[in-house]
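Section 5: illustrative case.
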């Protein structure tokens, strides 16, 4: 074989080898590109929608943000809530807060998935990017987290894991409180609304989700009567009418305006006030009903209750 033929053959082999490598690299690039844009059909209350298998640019409204964060997902942008004192404020300090929750502002962030609990805006949002509507009032906590986790490409098991961890934390908190005697006392929740009226809560709002839901602490007979009658959230009452709803311990939520009621004669006459059995907490911090916020609220309220029990020497 001549040296010229050998040289040509060698050049051909090099070219084929290079082509093969280029094809391989191209295949990998195509595969990577395909993986990042893979979609699947996902069943929702709005029918089957096509969503990314692994969404990368998630936008969440504020009502669901704590659940999204608890699942380990950091949105690229969030709805502006207008409150800085929330449990996850440090987590979102570098997250883009949308100036307005309107199509042009969401579109500018190029989302590949939008998460919302607001059914009224679903149609509008779904024109921007695949949108998953979460009917929060129709789902139990476990169902909500499993559904959301699945939508975010994490599988339902991740949602169940987050709920299981929270329930374990609740059990541990109740164990800490069981020997304090607090389960033999009654509890109330109020929000400061003004000098002449008080918002009373007895369900899953402003700390009720922790005191009466998670911890199962006793309410007053008046509150239980209202719940039984179907008034399951609370009421706005004058000071004159509020007395019978006040228990041995009172959780006050406020916006830095507790001083509006501190010197009210009716307030000062309550046994809980006279005994110093008052816990004053930030209303924005206690307002949200997502599992991340619940976990932080549970820690805060449990700590405050243990401090009061130690101070009072309360025992069974």
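Designed sequence:
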């Amino acid at each position: 074989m001549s040296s010229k033929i050998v040289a040509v053959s060698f050049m051909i082999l090099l070219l084929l080898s290079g082509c093969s490598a280029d094809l391989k690299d191209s295949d990998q690039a195509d595969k990577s590109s395909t993986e990042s844009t893979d979609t699947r059909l996902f069943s929702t209350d709005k029918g089957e929608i096509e969503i990314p298998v692994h969404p990368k640019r998630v936008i969440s409204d504020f009502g669901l943000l704590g659940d999204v964060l608890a699942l380990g997902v950091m949105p690229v942008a969030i709805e502006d809530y207008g409150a800085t004192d929330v449990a996850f404020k440090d987590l979102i300090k570098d997250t883009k807060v949308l100036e307005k929750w309107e199509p042009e502002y969401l579109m500018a962030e190029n989302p590949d998935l939008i998460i919302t609990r607001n059914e009224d805006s679903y149609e509008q949002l779904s024109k921007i990017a695949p949108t998953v509507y979460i009917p929060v009032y129709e789902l139990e906590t476990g169902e909500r987290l499993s559904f959301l986790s699945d939508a975010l490409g994490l599988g339902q098991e991740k949602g169940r894991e987050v709920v299981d961890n929270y329930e374990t934390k609740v059990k541990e908190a109740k164990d800490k409180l069981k020997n304090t005697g607090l389960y033999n006392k009654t509890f109330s929740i109020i929000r400061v609304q003004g000098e002449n009226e008080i918002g009373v809560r007895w369900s899953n709002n402003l700390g009720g989700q922790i005191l009466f839901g998670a911890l199962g602490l006793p309410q007053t007979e008046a509150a239980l009567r209202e719940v039984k009658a179907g008034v399951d959230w609370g009421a706005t009452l004058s000071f004159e009418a509020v007395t019978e709803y006040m228990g041995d311990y009172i959780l006050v939520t406020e916006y830095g305006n507790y001083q509006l009621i501190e010197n009210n004669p009716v307030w000062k006459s309550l046994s809980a006030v006279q005994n110093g059995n008052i816990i004053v907490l930030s209303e924005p911090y206690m307002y949200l009903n997502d599992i991340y916020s619940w976990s932080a609220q549970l820690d805060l309220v449990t700590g405050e209750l243990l401090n009061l029990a130690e101070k009072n020497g309360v025992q069974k």
